[in-house]
Amino acid sequence: MRKSLILTSLLLASTSSFAAGNSTNSANMSNFNYDYVDARVGIAPMTFGAGISKSIHPNAHAIFSIDSEFDNDYDMSAGLGFHAPVNNWADITGEMLFKMVDDRKKFDNDTGVEVNLGLRQWIGPQFELGGQVGYFKINNQSDTDDVYGTFYGRFHATELFSIGLEGKLNYIYGSQLMVTTRFKY
Question: From what superkingdom does this record's organism come (predicted)?
Answer without folding.
Answer: Bacteria
